[in-house]
Write a structure and sequence with these properties.
CATH architecture: Orthogonal Bundle
Number of helices: 21
CATH superfamily: MetI-like
Number of strands: 4
CATH topology: MetI-like fold
Number of domains: 1
Length: about 500
Protein backbone atom coordinates (compact mmCIF):
# COMPACT_ATOMS: atom_id res chain seq x y z
CA UNK A 1 0.00 0.00 0.00
CA UNK A 2 2.56 2.58 1.12
CA UNK A 3 5.25 1.71 -1.42
CA UNK A 4 2.88 1.59 -4.39
CA UNK A 5 0.76 4.57 -3.29
CA UNK A 6 3.84 6.69 -2.55
CA UNK A 7 5.42 5.86 -5.90
CA UNK A 8 2.23 6.83 -7.76
CA UNK A 9 1.97 10.16 -5.96
CA UNK A 10 5.63 11.17 -5.76
CA UNK A 11 7.68 9.57 -8.55
CA UNK A 12 7.58 11.65 -11.73
CA UNK A 13 5.74 9.88 -14.54
CA UNK A 14 4.92 6.81 -12.43
CA UNK A 15 1.23 7.69 -12.11
CA UNK A 16 0.64 7.29 -15.85
CA UNK A 17 1.63 3.61 -15.69
CA UNK A 18 0.92 2.59 -12.09
CA UNK A 19 -2.60 4.03 -11.78
CA UNK A 20 -4.00 2.10 -14.79
CA UNK A 21 -2.30 -1.05 -13.45
CA UNK A 22 -3.95 -0.47 -10.07
CA UNK A 23 -7.30 0.08 -11.82
CA UNK A 24 -6.92 -3.24 -13.61
CA UNK A 25 -5.84 -5.16 -10.51
CA UNK A 26 -8.72 -3.70 -8.48
CA UNK A 27 -11.21 -4.68 -11.16
CA UNK A 28 -10.13 -8.33 -11.34
CA UNK A 29 -12.42 -10.37 -9.07
CA UNK A 30 -11.06 -12.77 -6.49
CA UNK A 31 -11.99 -15.76 -8.64
CA UNK A 32 -10.00 -14.23 -11.49
CA UNK A 33 -6.81 -14.86 -9.50
CA UNK A 34 -7.97 -18.31 -8.40
CA UNK A 35 -6.75 -20.59 -11.24
CA UNK A 36 -3.26 -19.09 -11.42
CA UNK A 37 -2.73 -19.08 -7.66
CA UNK A 38 -4.15 -22.55 -7.03
CA UNK A 39 -2.66 -24.41 -10.00
CA UNK A 40 0.76 -22.81 -9.58
CA UNK A 41 1.02 -23.26 -5.81
CA UNK A 42 -0.44 -26.78 -5.78
CA UNK A 43 2.30 -27.81 -8.23
CA UNK A 44 4.90 -26.24 -5.93
CA UNK A 45 3.52 -28.14 -2.90
CA UNK A 46 1.96 -31.29 -4.43
CA UNK A 47 1.75 -33.38 -1.25
CA UNK A 48 0.85 -30.71 1.31
CA UNK A 49 -1.91 -28.19 1.94
CA UNK A 50 0.67 -25.40 2.05
CA UNK A 51 -0.04 -24.40 -1.56
CA UNK A 52 -3.78 -24.07 -0.94
CA UNK A 53 -3.18 -22.11 2.27
CA UNK A 54 -0.90 -19.65 0.48
CA UNK A 55 -3.39 -19.35 -2.40
CA UNK A 56 -6.19 -18.62 0.08
CA UNK A 57 -4.13 -15.90 1.78
CA UNK A 58 -3.25 -14.34 -1.57
CA UNK A 59 -6.90 -14.32 -2.68
CA UNK A 60 -7.92 -12.62 0.56
CA UNK A 61 -5.07 -10.15 0.00
CA UNK A 62 -6.47 -9.23 -3.43
CA UNK A 63 -9.79 -8.36 -1.76
CA UNK A 64 -8.11 -6.07 0.78
CA UNK A 65 -5.20 -4.10 -0.62
CA UNK A 66 -6.65 -1.93 -3.40
CA UNK A 67 -8.84 0.46 -1.39
CA UNK A 68 -6.00 1.04 1.10
CA UNK A 69 -3.65 1.90 -1.77
CA UNK A 70 -6.20 4.25 -3.35
CA UNK A 71 -6.77 5.96 0.01
CA UNK A 72 -3.05 6.49 0.64
CA UNK A 73 -2.51 7.79 -2.89
CA UNK A 74 -5.50 10.17 -2.69
CA UNK A 75 -4.32 11.49 0.69
CA UNK A 76 -0.82 12.23 -0.61
CA UNK A 77 -2.25 14.06 -3.62
CA UNK A 78 -4.51 16.12 -1.32
CA UNK A 79 -1.82 17.44 1.07
CA UNK A 80 -2.21 21.25 1.22
CA UNK A 81 0.59 23.12 -0.59
CA UNK A 82 1.29 25.25 2.49
CA UNK A 83 2.19 22.13 4.50
CA UNK A 84 4.49 20.98 1.70
CA UNK A 85 6.13 24.41 1.71
CA UNK A 86 6.63 24.28 5.50
CA UNK A 87 8.28 20.85 5.20
CA UNK A 88 10.59 22.21 2.52
CA UNK A 89 11.49 25.30 4.58
CA UNK A 90 12.17 23.09 7.62
CA UNK A 91 14.71 21.23 5.47
CA UNK A 92 13.20 17.85 6.37
CA UNK A 93 14.90 14.80 4.96
CA UNK A 94 12.95 12.39 2.76
CA UNK A 95 12.35 10.05 5.70
CA UNK A 96 11.29 12.87 8.05
CA UNK A 97 8.87 14.24 5.49
CA UNK A 98 7.42 10.78 4.90
CA UNK A 99 6.89 10.12 8.63
CA UNK A 100 5.87 13.60 9.79
CA UNK A 101 3.84 14.83 6.83
CA UNK A 102 2.82 12.06 4.44
CA UNK A 103 1.92 9.36 6.97
CA UNK A 104 0.38 11.85 9.39
CA UNK A 105 -1.87 13.39 6.75
CA UNK A 106 -2.91 9.98 5.38
CA UNK A 107 -3.39 8.31 8.78
CA UNK A 108 -7.13 8.91 9.24
CA UNK A 109 -8.15 7.67 5.80
CA UNK A 110 -5.68 4.79 5.97
CA UNK A 111 -7.02 3.59 9.33
CA UNK A 112 -10.65 3.63 8.20
CA UNK A 113 -9.82 1.93 4.91
CA UNK A 114 -7.77 -0.69 6.76
CA UNK A 115 -10.90 -1.51 8.73
CA UNK A 116 -12.80 -1.74 5.45
CA UNK A 117 -10.10 -4.02 4.06
CA UNK A 118 -10.48 -6.29 7.06
CA UNK A 119 -14.18 -6.44 6.30
CA UNK A 120 -13.34 -7.19 2.67
CA UNK A 121 -11.22 -10.11 3.79
CA UNK A 122 -14.10 -11.51 5.84
CA UNK A 123 -16.45 -10.91 2.87
CA UNK A 124 -14.58 -13.30 0.57
CA UNK A 125 -13.72 -15.81 3.30
CA UNK A 126 -16.29 -18.37 2.10
CA UNK A 127 -14.95 -18.11 -1.47
CA UNK A 128 -11.29 -18.24 -0.44
CA UNK A 129 -11.55 -21.28 1.85
CA UNK A 130 -14.01 -23.38 -0.18
CA UNK A 131 -14.08 -23.35 -3.97
CA UNK A 132 -14.58 -25.62 -6.96
CA UNK A 133 -12.10 -25.50 -9.84
CA UNK A 134 -13.10 -27.78 -12.68
CA UNK A 135 -13.48 -31.33 -11.34
CA UNK A 136 -11.70 -30.52 -8.06
CA UNK A 137 -13.46 -29.40 -4.87
CA UNK A 138 -10.99 -27.61 -2.57
CA UNK A 139 -11.80 -27.00 1.10
CA UNK A 140 -9.53 -25.66 3.82
CA UNK A 141 -10.19 -25.89 7.55
CA UNK A 142 -11.68 -22.60 8.66
CA UNK A 143 -14.83 -20.66 9.41
CA UNK A 144 -15.29 -19.72 5.75
CA UNK A 145 -15.45 -23.31 4.52
CA UNK A 146 -17.64 -24.23 7.52
CA UNK A 147 -20.18 -21.54 6.60
CA UNK A 148 -19.99 -22.42 2.91
CA UNK A 149 -20.94 -26.03 3.69
CA UNK A 150 -23.66 -24.94 6.12
CA UNK A 151 -25.21 -22.66 3.48
CA UNK A 152 -25.09 -25.38 0.80
CA UNK A 153 -26.87 -27.84 3.10
CA UNK A 154 -29.33 -25.27 4.45
CA UNK A 155 -28.31 -26.14 8.02
CA UNK A 156 -29.75 -23.23 10.02
CA UNK A 157 -28.22 -24.35 13.33
CA UNK A 158 -24.72 -24.60 11.84
CA UNK A 159 -25.15 -21.18 10.20
CA UNK A 160 -26.21 -19.66 13.53
CA UNK A 161 -23.18 -21.14 15.29
CA UNK A 162 -20.92 -19.80 12.55
CA UNK A 163 -22.48 -16.33 12.86
CA UNK A 164 -22.00 -16.35 16.65
CA UNK A 165 -18.35 -17.41 16.25
CA UNK A 166 -17.81 -14.63 13.72
CA UNK A 167 -19.45 -12.03 15.99
CA UNK A 168 -17.20 -13.07 18.87
CA UNK A 169 -14.11 -12.76 16.67
CA UNK A 170 -15.21 -9.34 15.38
CA UNK A 171 -15.79 -7.97 18.89
CA UNK A 172 -12.40 -9.31 19.98
CA UNK A 173 -10.57 -7.66 17.05
CA UNK A 174 -12.55 -4.43 17.47
CA UNK A 175 -11.64 -4.05 21.13
CA UNK A 176 -7.99 -5.07 20.88
CA UNK A 177 -7.06 -3.61 17.48
CA UNK A 178 -9.38 -1.18 15.74
CA UNK A 179 -10.71 0.90 18.61
CA UNK A 180 -7.20 1.65 19.98
CA UNK A 181 -5.92 2.43 16.48
CA UNK A 182 -8.82 4.78 15.67
CA UNK A 183 -8.40 6.58 19.01
CA UNK A 184 -4.64 6.88 18.43
CA UNK A 185 -5.15 8.24 14.89
CA UNK A 186 -7.18 11.19 16.24
CA UNK A 187 -3.94 13.03 16.95
CA UNK A 188 -3.29 13.28 13.20
CA UNK A 189 -6.41 15.35 12.50
CA UNK A 190 -6.25 19.12 12.09
CA UNK A 191 -7.60 19.60 15.60
CA UNK A 192 -8.47 17.76 18.76
CA UNK A 193 -11.66 15.83 18.22
CA UNK A 194 -12.87 16.26 21.77
CA UNK A 195 -12.54 12.62 22.70
CA UNK A 196 -14.57 11.43 19.75
CA UNK A 197 -12.95 8.01 19.92
CA UNK A 198 -11.97 6.32 23.14
CA UNK A 199 -10.30 3.00 23.92
CA UNK A 200 -9.91 1.43 27.34
CA UNK A 201 -6.94 -0.60 26.09
CA UNK A 202 -5.12 2.45 24.72
CA UNK A 203 -5.69 4.41 27.96
CA UNK A 204 -4.23 1.58 30.03
CA UNK A 205 -1.27 1.22 27.70
CA UNK A 206 -0.54 4.95 27.90
CA UNK A 207 -0.43 4.78 31.70
CA UNK A 208 1.79 1.71 31.72
CA UNK A 209 5.56 1.59 32.14
CA UNK A 210 5.82 -0.37 28.90
CA UNK A 211 4.46 2.64 26.97
CA UNK A 212 7.07 4.93 28.53
CA UNK A 213 9.88 2.54 27.62
CA UNK A 214 8.59 2.21 24.05
CA UNK A 215 8.32 6.01 23.74
CA UNK A 216 11.97 6.41 24.78
CA UNK A 217 13.07 3.72 22.32
CA UNK A 218 11.05 5.39 19.56
CA UNK A 219 12.72 8.71 20.35
CA UNK A 220 16.17 7.13 20.07
CA UNK A 221 15.20 5.43 16.80
CA UNK A 222 13.94 8.75 15.38
CA UNK A 223 17.19 10.47 16.38
CA UNK A 224 19.31 7.72 14.80
CA UNK A 225 17.13 7.66 11.67
CA UNK A 226 17.71 11.38 11.11
CA UNK A 227 21.48 10.88 11.23
CA UNK A 228 21.25 7.77 9.04
CA UNK A 229 18.99 9.52 6.53
CA UNK A 230 21.47 12.41 6.27
CA UNK A 231 24.38 10.00 5.74
CA UNK A 232 22.43 7.98 3.18
CA UNK A 233 21.42 11.08 1.24
CA UNK A 234 25.03 12.29 1.15
CA UNK A 235 26.23 8.97 -0.28
CA UNK A 236 23.38 8.39 -2.71
CA UNK A 237 25.36 9.64 -5.68
CA UNK A 238 27.73 6.65 -5.41
CA UNK A 239 24.94 4.17 -6.02
CA UNK A 240 23.18 6.05 -8.84
CA UNK A 241 24.64 3.88 -11.59
CA UNK A 242 23.71 0.62 -9.84
CA UNK A 243 20.23 1.96 -9.16
CA UNK A 244 19.70 2.89 -12.79
CA UNK A 245 20.93 -0.55 -13.89
CA UNK A 246 18.56 -2.22 -11.43
CA UNK A 247 15.64 -0.15 -12.72
CA UNK A 248 16.37 -1.10 -16.30
CA UNK A 249 16.64 -4.81 -15.47
CA UNK A 250 13.39 -4.66 -13.51
CA UNK A 251 11.56 -2.91 -16.34
CA UNK A 252 12.92 -5.44 -18.85
CA UNK A 253 11.75 -8.38 -16.72
CA UNK A 254 8.30 -6.83 -16.25
CA UNK A 255 7.90 -6.16 -19.98
CA UNK A 256 9.03 -9.71 -20.85
CA UNK A 257 6.62 -11.26 -18.36
CA UNK A 258 3.78 -9.01 -19.54
CA UNK A 259 4.33 -9.93 -23.19
CA UNK A 260 4.42 -13.65 -22.36
CA UNK A 261 1.23 -13.38 -20.32
CA UNK A 262 -0.46 -11.36 -23.07
CA UNK A 263 0.39 -14.01 -25.66
CA UNK A 264 -1.12 -16.74 -23.49
CA UNK A 265 -4.18 -14.59 -22.81
CA UNK A 266 -4.79 -13.89 -26.51
CA UNK A 267 -4.49 -17.62 -27.24
CA UNK A 268 -7.24 -18.32 -24.67
CA UNK A 269 -9.52 -15.64 -26.14
CA UNK A 270 -9.11 -17.01 -29.68
CA UNK A 271 -11.14 -20.11 -28.73
CA UNK A 272 -14.28 -18.18 -27.69
CA UNK A 273 -17.27 -18.27 -30.05
CA UNK A 274 -19.29 -15.22 -31.12
CA UNK A 275 -22.28 -16.48 -29.13
CA UNK A 276 -20.19 -16.60 -25.95
CA UNK A 277 -18.93 -13.05 -26.60
CA UNK A 278 -22.51 -11.80 -27.07
CA UNK A 279 -23.65 -13.48 -23.87
CA UNK A 280 -20.75 -11.94 -21.94
CA UNK A 281 -21.57 -8.43 -23.19
CA UNK A 282 -25.24 -8.80 -22.16
CA UNK A 283 -24.07 -10.09 -18.78
CA UNK A 284 -21.73 -7.10 -18.41
CA UNK A 285 -24.58 -4.65 -19.02
CA UNK A 286 -26.77 -6.34 -16.40
CA UNK A 287 -24.03 -6.35 -13.76
CA UNK A 288 -23.06 -2.74 -14.57
CA UNK A 289 -26.63 -1.57 -13.91
CA UNK A 290 -26.75 -3.50 -10.63
CA UNK A 291 -23.42 -2.03 -9.51
CA UNK A 292 -24.57 1.53 -10.27
CA UNK A 293 -27.86 0.92 -8.45
CA UNK A 294 -26.10 -0.47 -5.37
CA UNK A 295 -23.63 2.45 -5.17
CA UNK A 296 -26.41 5.02 -5.66
CA UNK A 297 -28.60 3.43 -2.96
CA UNK A 298 -25.62 3.21 -0.61
CA UNK A 299 -24.79 6.89 -1.15
CA UNK A 300 -28.32 7.97 -0.22
CA UNK A 301 -27.87 6.93 3.40
CA UNK A 302 -24.10 6.75 3.95
CA UNK A 303 -23.36 10.41 3.07
CA UNK A 304 -25.71 12.05 5.63
CA UNK A 305 -25.06 9.41 8.29
CA UNK A 306 -21.29 9.55 7.74
CA UNK A 307 -21.24 13.34 8.06
CA UNK A 308 -23.34 13.17 11.22
CA UNK A 309 -21.00 10.64 12.82
CA UNK A 310 -17.81 12.32 11.64
CA UNK A 311 -18.65 15.82 12.91
CA UNK A 312 -20.22 14.87 16.26
CA UNK A 313 -18.03 13.41 19.05
CA UNK A 314 -21.15 12.16 20.84
CA UNK A 315 -22.55 10.32 17.81
CA UNK A 316 -19.09 9.01 16.99
CA UNK A 317 -18.74 7.45 20.44
CA UNK A 318 -22.14 5.77 20.09
CA UNK A 319 -22.11 4.57 16.49
CA UNK A 320 -18.45 4.06 15.62
CA UNK A 321 -18.06 0.69 17.38
CA UNK A 322 -21.42 -0.47 16.00
CA UNK A 323 -20.42 0.45 12.45
CA UNK A 324 -17.01 -1.16 12.82
CA UNK A 325 -18.55 -4.45 13.90
CA UNK A 326 -21.34 -4.30 11.29
CA UNK A 327 -18.84 -3.61 8.50
CA UNK A 328 -16.51 -6.37 9.69
CA UNK A 329 -19.29 -8.95 9.54
CA UNK A 330 -19.05 -10.83 6.21
CA UNK A 331 -22.22 -10.14 4.24
CA UNK A 332 -22.22 -13.55 2.45
CA UNK A 333 -23.03 -15.17 5.79
CA UNK A 334 -26.42 -13.43 5.86
CA UNK A 335 -27.05 -13.81 2.12
CA UNK A 336 -29.23 -16.92 2.69
CA UNK A 337 -31.49 -14.93 5.04
CA UNK A 338 -31.75 -12.03 2.57
CA UNK A 339 -32.36 -14.29 -0.42
CA UNK A 340 -34.91 -16.34 1.52
CA UNK A 341 -36.79 -13.16 2.45
CA UNK A 342 -36.69 -11.83 -1.11
CA UNK A 343 -37.90 -15.15 -2.53
CA UNK A 344 -40.84 -15.00 -0.12
CA UNK A 345 -41.93 -11.82 -1.92
CA UNK A 346 -41.30 -13.50 -5.31
CA UNK A 347 -38.26 -11.31 -6.04
CA UNK A 348 -35.73 -13.22 -8.09
CA UNK A 349 -31.97 -13.12 -7.74
CA UNK A 350 -31.82 -10.32 -10.32
CA UNK A 351 -33.32 -7.92 -7.75
CA UNK A 352 -31.96 -9.69 -4.68
CA UNK A 353 -28.41 -9.35 -6.01
CA UNK A 354 -28.69 -5.53 -5.84
CA UNK A 355 -29.47 -5.82 -2.13
CA UNK A 356 -26.58 -8.24 -1.70
CA UNK A 357 -24.20 -5.86 -3.49
CA UNK A 358 -25.47 -3.03 -1.29
CA UNK A 359 -24.68 -5.03 1.85
CA UNK A 360 -21.12 -5.59 0.69
CA UNK A 361 -20.23 -2.13 -0.67
CA UNK A 362 -21.99 0.48 1.48
CA UNK A 363 -19.22 0.46 4.08
CA UNK A 364 -16.59 1.66 1.58
CA UNK A 365 -18.53 4.91 1.17
CA UNK A 366 -19.50 5.27 4.83
CA UNK A 367 -15.96 4.86 6.19
CA UNK A 368 -14.53 7.37 3.71
CA UNK A 369 -17.27 9.92 4.43
CA UNK A 370 -16.64 9.58 8.18
CA UNK A 371 -12.90 10.04 7.61
CA UNK A 372 -13.50 13.08 5.40
CA UNK A 373 -16.01 14.82 7.67
CA UNK A 374 -13.97 14.17 10.83
CA UNK A 375 -11.02 15.97 9.19
CA UNK A 376 -12.99 19.21 8.59
CA UNK A 377 -11.41 21.87 10.86
CA UNK A 378 -13.65 23.15 13.63
CA UNK A 379 -12.95 26.73 12.51
CA UNK A 380 -14.83 26.11 9.25
CA UNK A 381 -17.87 24.84 11.16
CA UNK A 382 -17.73 27.96 13.33
CA UNK A 383 -17.49 30.25 10.30
CA UNK A 384 -20.54 28.61 8.71
CA UNK A 385 -22.45 29.05 11.97
CA UNK A 386 -21.44 32.70 12.42
CA UNK A 387 -22.31 33.43 8.78
CA UNK A 388 -25.76 31.93 9.45
CA UNK A 389 -25.53 29.45 6.58
CA UNK A 390 -28.77 27.68 5.86
CA UNK A 391 -28.83 23.89 5.97
CA UNK A 392 -28.67 23.69 2.18
CA UNK A 393 -25.94 26.32 1.86
CA UNK A 394 -23.80 24.57 4.50
CA UNK A 395 -23.99 21.34 2.54
CA UNK A 396 -23.18 23.08 -0.77
CA UNK A 397 -20.38 25.36 0.41
CA UNK A 398 -18.76 23.41 3.24
CA UNK A 399 -19.68 19.77 3.73
CA UNK A 400 -19.78 18.39 0.17
CA UNK A 401 -16.61 20.22 -1.00
CA UNK A 402 -14.75 19.18 2.17
CA UNK A 403 -15.67 15.50 1.99
CA UNK A 404 -15.55 15.22 -1.81
CA UNK A 405 -11.98 13.79 -2.09
CA UNK A 406 -12.78 11.14 0.54
CA UNK A 407 -16.22 10.49 -0.96
CA UNK A 408 -14.65 10.00 -4.38
CA UNK A 409 -12.24 7.43 -2.95
CA UNK A 410 -15.24 5.69 -1.38
CA UNK A 411 -17.14 5.63 -4.67
CA UNK A 412 -14.15 4.25 -6.61
CA UNK A 413 -13.46 1.47 -4.11
CA UNK A 414 -17.19 0.77 -3.65
CA UNK A 415 -17.66 0.18 -7.37
CA UNK A 416 -14.58 -2.01 -7.48
CA UNK A 417 -15.90 -3.92 -4.48
CA UNK A 418 -19.33 -4.25 -6.07
CA UNK A 419 -17.87 -5.75 -9.25
CA UNK A 420 -15.95 -8.19 -7.08
CA UNK A 421 -18.99 -8.99 -4.95
CA UNK A 422 -21.05 -9.82 -8.04
CA UNK A 423 -19.36 -13.23 -8.22
CA UNK A 424 -21.02 -14.05 -4.89
CA UNK A 425 -24.28 -12.10 -5.31
CA UNK A 426 -25.26 -13.37 -8.78
CA UNK A 427 -24.50 -17.05 -8.24
CA UNK A 428 -24.99 -19.05 -5.06
CA UNK A 429 -25.94 -22.44 -3.72
CA UNK A 430 -28.95 -22.25 -1.42
CA UNK A 431 -30.62 -25.22 0.31
CA UNK A 432 -29.36 -27.76 -2.19
CA UNK A 433 -30.23 -25.73 -5.29
CA UNK A 434 -28.21 -23.34 -7.42
CA UNK A 435 -29.57 -19.80 -7.79
CA UNK A 436 -28.25 -17.69 -10.63
CA UNK A 437 -29.13 -14.64 -12.71
CA UNK A 438 -27.78 -13.02 -15.86
CA UNK A 439 -24.60 -11.17 -14.99
CA UNK A 440 -20.84 -11.10 -15.39
CA UNK A 441 -20.30 -12.26 -11.80
CA UNK A 442 -22.44 -15.33 -12.43
CA UNK A 443 -20.55 -16.02 -15.67
CA UNK A 444 -17.22 -15.92 -13.81
CA UNK A 445 -18.48 -18.19 -11.02
CA UNK A 446 -19.91 -20.71 -13.48
CA UNK A 447 -16.77 -20.69 -15.64
CA UNK A 448 -14.60 -21.27 -12.56
CA UNK A 449 -16.78 -24.14 -11.38
CA UNK A 450 -16.78 -25.80 -14.81
CA UNK A 451 -13.10 -25.14 -15.44
CA UNK A 452 -13.84 -23.14 -18.63
CA UNK A 453 -10.67 -21.08 -18.48
CA UNK A 454 -11.22 -19.39 -21.85
CA UNK A 455 -14.62 -18.02 -20.75
CA UNK A 456 -13.15 -17.08 -17.37
CA UNK A 457 -10.30 -15.20 -19.05
CA UNK A 458 -12.71 -13.33 -21.34
CA UNK A 459 -15.10 -12.44 -18.50
CA UNK A 460 -12.29 -11.18 -16.27
CA UNK A 461 -10.87 -9.17 -19.17
CA UNK A 462 -14.25 -7.57 -19.90
CA UNK A 463 -14.74 -6.72 -16.24
CA UNK A 464 -11.28 -5.16 -16.03
CA UNK A 465 -11.83 -3.17 -19.24
CA UNK A 466 -15.23 -1.92 -18.03
CA UNK A 467 -13.90 -0.79 -14.66
CA UNK A 468 -10.80 0.86 -16.14
CA UNK A 469 -12.86 2.57 -18.84
CA UNK A 470 -15.32 3.94 -16.27
CA UNK A 471 -12.43 5.11 -14.11
CA UNK A 472 -10.87 6.92 -17.06
CA UNK A 473 -14.07 8.53 -18.32
CA UNK A 474 -15.76 9.38 -15.00
CA UNK A 475 -13.57 9.00 -11.91
CA UNK A 476 -10.35 10.46 -13.34
CA UNK A 477 -11.88 13.87 -14.26
CA UNK A 478 -13.64 14.00 -10.89
CA UNK A 479 -10.39 13.08 -9.13
CA UNK A 480 -8.57 15.91 -10.91
CA UNK A 481 -11.34 18.30 -9.88
CA UNK A 482 -11.11 17.12 -6.26
CA UNK A 483 -7.34 17.66 -6.18
CA UNK A 484 -7.49 21.12 -7.76
CA UNK A 485 -10.64 22.62 -6.23
CA UNK A 486 -11.55 20.76 -3.05
CA UNK A 487 -8.38 20.70 -0.95
CA UNK A 488 -7.47 22.75 2.11
CA UNK A 489 -4.94 25.21 0.75
CA UNK A 490 -4.09 28.82 1.12
Amino acid sequence: TMVYGYAMARVAGAERVMLPVLDILQSIPVLGFLPGFVLGLVHLFPHRNMGLEIASVLMIFTGQVWNMTFSFYASLRSIPPDLVAVARLANLSWWERFCRLDLSFAATGLVWNSMMSMAGGWFFLTVSEAFVLGAHDFRLPGLGSYMSLAIERGDAQAQLLGVLAMLGMIVFVDQLVWRPVVAWAQKFTDEEAGGASESWLLERLRRSRLWQVCSRVAGLVRHRSRRTATQVESSCSRADQLRQLGKRLTVALIITGALYGLAKYVHLLSTITSGEWLNLFFSTTATFLRVLSAVALASLWTIPVGVMIGRSPRWSRVFQPIIQMAASFPAPMIFPVVVGGMLTFHAGLGISSVVLLLLGTQWYILFNVIAGSSAIPRELWEVSRLARFSWLLRWRKLILPAIFPSLLTGWITAMGGAWNASIVAEYMKYRGQTLTTTGLGAAISQATERGDFHVLAAAVGIMAATVVGFNRLVWRPLSHRAQTRFTLSA
